[in-house]
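Why does this matter for the project? Reviewers at the last site visit asked to see concrete outputs rather than summary tables. In response, this paragraph embeds two records directly. Each consists of the residue sequence and, immediately after it, the corresponding structure tokens. Nothing has been edited or filtered.
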Amino acid sequence: MTALAMLAAALLDAVLGEPRRAHPLVGFGRLAHAIETRLYRDGRMAGTFAWCLGVLPAVALTALASHWLTALSATAGWAWSAVVLYSAIGHRSLGEHARRAETALRDGALDTARLAVGRMVSRDVDALDASQVAAATTESVLENGNDAVFGALFWFAILGAPGAVLYRLSNTLDAMWGYRTPRLARFGWAAARIDDALNFIPARLTAATYAVLGDTASALRCWRVQARQWDSPNAGPVMAAGAGALRVRLGGPAPYHGTWETRPVLGEGAAADADSIAAALRMVRNGVRVWIVVAIAASYAWRLFHA
């Protein structure tokens, strides 16, 4: 049932995309902002309590609803799980955002491409040339392939609907609080560390998926050599393996808040372009198919073994 719920959620996402109104993550973002406003203190304990207040009640309510609906009807429990997972993944949305930048680059509309990638990344996009826009978009596709798709699928497979909620809300709080700024370095410590822990296995499975679906030798070589140079312990393997699999150069200097920051180079081969974005999207899409096929095969194997 778990594997079929994964398939149903992926199909719902492909057909419907993200809810245009009343998206659960938008509502959670507002709740998190209210919690931060009321509970903010420059300390780890305050941030940890804020994280618990934001995430744990939602996980508990999801678990109770899953238990009650499954007891009522196996079909109701299955449908609930599929809908929860659908709300936790953003595969189609990722593609829609990235393709806007890809299309603009192909049309030679650099300003439009900058505007599109500015909705995906936090760097100063006005300073980017066409290749840098393509690289930023490709990086976002690779990293969000893990954060918005594979990570949620992994924790759903492990813990069901509560696991998907735990992962996605934790990832959202990391995106809101997990910055090493003077204001958030201590308050966001728990959000950042918990997200790192939840992403440790999914990130490496995502990197392995990219390696299998692209230039495997290059992906493994870049993962081994370059991943540890990246400042994030989980984004490093994902982006290094993804860049290697695509045979494209990513990373390198990027502008943030008016200053060009030095970043390691990831991958190898040609500079990024519109084709790199398309190839990254195709790799994530094929990865979702592989994960679902593996989940279904594992489910049937488990049933045969325990028959």
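We now turn to the second protein, recorded in exactly the same manner.
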Amino acid sequence: MANLTSMSGFILMGFSDDRKLQILHAVLFLVTYLLALTGNLLIFTITTLDHCLHSPMYYFLKHLSLLDLCFISVTVPQSIVNSIMDNGYISLGQCILQVFFFIALASSEVAILTVMSYDRYVAICQPLQYETIMNPCTCRHAVIAVWIAGGLSGLMHTAVNFSIPLCGERVIHHFFCDVPQMLKLACSYEFINEIAVATFTTSTAFICLISIVLSYIRIFSTVLRIPSAEGRIKFFSTCLPHLFVVTFFLSAAGFEFLRLPSDSQSGMDLMFSIFYTVLPPTLNPIIYSLRNEAMKASLRKVLSKQEFAQRTMYLKAIFKL
């Protein structure tokens, strides 16, 4: 620990110094990562291959799955390797890339969830104008805006965060390069620019949250006026999973990022970080697929022997060209 102030990288402390707990953490994270990888790849695949799922709702869901797949891959694999190797060192370059992609993908996830709530609002509250408003061109532009907004947010945070002078040992009490934890390493009053950027990002996220809340207020008021109980159940089956994902992700992330940096580190901090970094990408495929009959039917169709053989022949024909 004596040379930590002179090295260019950082030490990630992770969850525990106990070797057995490190192995347990690596196994649990590996299982979770494989579940997230499988679930999101399945959703991305079936929403791409099945033409019945080429509506705006599933188009946005496909991009949410891609975001989740990338999001969990930013932090979890590195943490698994560190635990197995019993070495928490991460280079400066790796940390910069981790911060950039983490912030960019998290911001994009908030944006895509906002777009998805607006899509549900238009579908339920303005069904006659749905195809006109949510046309393919609009959907493409919305997704492009989501990725660009996330990239700009990541660039701002990364540029400001790594321009801050650091004092003391470069030890991060976390399993990844978490911005709030890195601010604890900053020299006194040197992180005011990062707070300004974080305030801007938080304000933008709050605007997204207000937009989502307003959309769902209109959605619920419309759905509750539907006389058919079956119709209400159908609408709630597509809206409630999305509302759960939004609430879970934003509440956990808000708890972590709205707190001022402190010198103490508790297990609660690590737990809440898991709530917004690991669990949402893992649970999203389950939430969206198990409560959606169209998704389940498409999954059975794609995994059927006949459909699988047709896809295999199609791919072979492509590779022969």
